[in-house]
Description:
about 325 residues, about 20% strand, 3-stranded antiparallel beta sheet, alpha/beta
Amino acid sequence: MQGVQVTVLAGGIGGARFLLGLRSLGHDITVIGNTGDDVTMWGLRICPDLDTVMYTLGGGISAERGWGREDETFRLKGELAAYRAAADDDSAPSWFGLGDLDIATHVLRTQWLREGVTLSEVTRRLCARWQPGVTLLPACDEPVETHVTLVDGRTVHFQEWWVRLHAGVAAKRIELTGASAAHPAPGVIEAIDSADVVVLPPSNPVVSIGTILSVPGIADALRRTTAPVVGLSPIIGDAPVRGMADACLAAIGVETSAYAVAMHYGRRPSGLLDGWLVDQTDKEAADRLTEEGLPARAVPLLMSDVDASAAMAQAALDLAEELRR
Ligand code: GDP
Ligand code: CA
């Protein structure tokens, strides 16, 4: 298949690494990015997952951290801390890493949003510099934020739970606030309707893909598109490959396994998937799912480099092609 229209629902690091591989195959890619991680800090609007996709595909990502910019410095953060210490102000977060280069993105984004420019248009303008080689759309233009209710009763922004608490306090509820008033951003539904293949990459099923699906209309579009919908498991051998997706899955009562995540998405038309890829070590899960009616294949799913991600992307497209027939 060449010149295929592929639409991908993506979070940050997992989605971006998958997209690097997919892009190398030369297809026409539209990315629907998660905006649930978005947060306002120091008066700046920050869109971590959109930026991770943009910087990764644009060649500006920090290879070591996987987020933020390469060759970054944190001088502004130090200045803010010095003022705050002197003023006895501990109201603002010190745990969120904002580098000097990265801040330029947030300053411009905030300025444009204040002028009334939509987040889609802001994202398009930022991408004009980075040339990610994909069309990057936010899931919605309205401000939404993932909030997490902890077992101790507190409700905190997702970033506070994830970055400050390292998901160390269990969550009992994860919710995309603002979702009910949100609409899919321009182009999102069209990208799902007109796709040849829709892919759910190995992004976090709860706080990346789950939040995108919380925007009214997006899950329905997935259910009705004529394109095959194929997903790749972010869970290998009953553990997330990176990060703390297990803590997110626990909060929604889903076991941390490639099988359980597939069952959580479900089989179309009531669910979202036509096919599912698990890692080669989870072959039993693939066999069981296939037997139960969801075609699944076991292939290597470790994104160790671009070639490995490209092979995963090709496996997803091959499965989609097989399902189309
Ligand atoms: P985030 O927004 O930066 O957390 O990134 P995503 O939501 O896009 O992706 C996070 C998910 O990617 C985690 O649940 C990881 O388990 C998964 N992940 C990371 N690296 C790999 C990998 O090499 N293979 C697979 N299968 N999943 C991965
Ligand atoms: Ca994220």
